Amino acid sequence: MADIKYYLGMVKEETKLAFSNNKKILLISTLLFIIPMIFGYIYADAISGYIQPMVDQFEQQVADGKIALTTPSLFTNNVTVAIMLYALAALGGIYGAILLANNGIFIGYYGANFNIWAYLALTLPHGIFEIPAIIIATTGGFTLLLFIIRFIWNLYSPDYSYLDIFDPYFSDVKITPKERVYASFKKNQDKIKESFIFLCWAVVLLIIAAFIEANITVPLASWIFSIFGLSII
Question: Which pTM was predicted?
Answer without folding.
Answer: 0.86
